[in-house]
Amino acid sequence: MRGIKVVAVVSIFLLSVAVLLNAGQNKFGVADEQKTVFSHSVQVGETLLPKGEYKIRHTMEGAVHVMVFTQLKASNLATAAREVPDCVRRKEDRETYFGYQKSGTNDYLLQEMAFKRDTAKHVF
Ligand SMILES: [Zn+2]
């Protein structure tokens, strides 16, 4: 009986690991949470985020996709939230990239971003 118990515990453990691994992407093909480091300040909509390390969360407010940027490891933590029209399917290499546009005095107005392995990107 003891052997069966051990097998059961190991199975449950393996199942949890599988669930955790599958939790990487949501139904839109993007991970719910990412981390990134901006080596320069980045304009997200109306908000200018200072350079630094950020957690970026994909959240839903009803049917609206909202990307929430939260700075990590800083004394004054900068945050920004930006609605995105939708998550757009992409066929490309699935690498991480950030697309910027120059706007007035700012060189880095965020236009779109995609993360490694995600099958969709966020277009602002
Ligand atoms: Zn989305």
Protein model, in words:
- The chain has one helix at 2-22, and strands at 33-38, 42-44, 47-49, 52-61, 64-72, 79-84, 87-89, 97-103, 106-114, 120-123.
- With 124 residues, it is α+β, with helices and mostly antiparallel strands.
- It has a four-stranded antiparallel β-sheet with strand order 1-4-5-6, with no helix packed on it. It has a four-stranded antiparallel β-sheet with strand order 7-10-9-8, with no helix packed on it.
- The longest helix is centred in the first third of the chain and has 21 residues, at 2-22.
- The chain starts with a helix and ends with a strand.
- The chain binds zinc ion (ZN).
- The site of zinc ion has 5 residues, from loops.
Features of the shown structure:
single chain; 124 residues; alpha+beta; four-stranded antiparallel sheet; 10 strands; 17% helix; 48% strand; elongated; binds zinc ion
Provide a compact summary of the structure.
Helix content is 17%, strand content 48%. The chain is of the alpha+beta class and 124 residues long.
Set out the fold topology:
Blueprint: H1 2-22, E1 33-38, E2 42-44, E3 47-49, E4 52-61, E5 64-72, E6 79-84, E7 87-89, E8 97-103, E9 106-114, E10 120-123
Antiparallel strand pairs: 1-4, 2-3, 4-5, 5-6, 7-10, 8-9, 9-10
Zinc ion (ZN) is lined by residues 28, 58, 65, 84, 87.
Bound molecules: zinc ion
The portion of residues forming beta strands comes to over 45%
**Helix content, binned percent:** 10-25%
Q: What structural category arises from helix and sheet content?
A: alpha+beta
Enumerate the spans where pLDDT stays under 50 for 5 or more consecutive residues: 18-22
Mean pLDDT figure: 85
The span between the termini is 58 Å
Number of helices: 1
The spatial strand order of the largest sheet comes to 1-4-5-6
Radius of gyration (Å)? 19 Å
Query: Could you spell the SSE succession in H and E letters?
Result: HEEEEEEEEEE
Number of separate strands? 10
Using the alpha-carbon principal axes, give the shape.
elongated
